[in-house]
Amino acid sequence: MPLSEFDIIERFFHRPERSRDDVLLGIGDDAALLAVPCDRELAVAVDTLVAGRHFPPATRAFDIGHKALAVNLSDLAAMGAEPAWGTLALTLPEVDEAWLQSFADGFFTLADRYDVQLVGGDTTRGPLSVTVQVLGPVPRGRALRRDGARPGQRIFVTGTLGDAACALWQMQAGEQVAPRLLERLNRPEPRVAFGRGLAAVGSAAIDISDGLLADLGHIVTASNCGATVWVDRLPRSPLLTAQVPSAQLLVSQLSGGDDYELCFCVEPTKVAALQALARDCALAVTEVGVIEPQPGVRCRHDDGSDYQPGVRGFDHFA
Ligand code: ADP
Ligand code: MG
């Protein structure tokens, strides 16, 4: 007997033993009921991953489960919010129990790490597509919005840039992909603890899903200002340096998507507090530019000469 929709939910996604205190009603009713503390706002993010569009159809189910949640946790991190609850809308071409088990393992391994409870969802048949929503509280008025950048603020990024884009290029070219790079593409590590701490230190933030230039562009547009990026200071992993010809390094760092690092702005007076936060989170942060009044994002070398980027970022409809 093939599993019914309800069997799938019970077997793979309903885990009553892992209930948070603030979940009044989880999976099983028409809607979940969540208790939001009255001194908090609720941050909500949703993202869809479509097979063949956001990941190759052959991607391991574990990685799809991880990434579908990770990209949403990254959005909440970029708001300075604490992820608490999730929903999952799953469209499956067929019921493949091994696939479902591996997908659920990838999803819940990450969810449990951050104490995120799956409180509902929807299960339908069709071409493989995964939509995850994550919700979580953020202290009133403290969320890291895109419109908080002001001239004079320093621009920072977490971690290193370009690894995920390099993995995608190698995959698309049919080359052997270095395992560490593939991990950056398939298992992005959302900067959850750092993002929560940044709510008290930063002025504006975004997660880098479409490339630094495109995403920093969203910050300066929302904030009615501009920026200069010092391209020689962009952080990169030793592996990227080894794998990518030097002419392409800056393209991957400036325009490569899928890194899910954070790009954020900090008042000069808060830089010491930022460094302390980065130490506490054991996460590297690198100053890569400055916010300026003139609109647009300019790229400069350390010798003062301009750098003209080619590709600016990924757009689904371009
Ligand atoms: P309804 O018809 O009222 O929308 P469903 O039959 O779609 O309810 O779902 C039954 C319950 O199972 C609901 O609480 C729903 O949130 C939950 N659910 C359905 N699919 C999933 C899923 N993939 N993951 C988690 N919960 C799910
Ligand atoms: Mg439903």
Low-confidence stretches: none
Physical arrangement of strands within the biggest beta sheet: 8-10-7-11-9-12
- The SS-based structural class is alpha+beta
Tell me the distance between the termini.
Answer: 45 Å
How many helical stretches?
10
| Helical content class | 25-40%
Major β-sheet, in short? 6 strands, mixed
Tell me the CATH architecture of the largest domain.
Answer: Alpha-Beta Complex
Q: How do the helices and strands follow one another from N- to C-terminus?
A: HEEEHEHEEEHHHEHEHHEHEE
CATH topology of the largest domain: Phosphoribosyl-aminoimidazole Synthetase, Chain A, domain 2
Could you name the CATH class of the largest domain?
Alpha Beta
Instruction: Name every ligand kind in the structure.
Output: adenosine-5'-diphosphate, magnesium ion
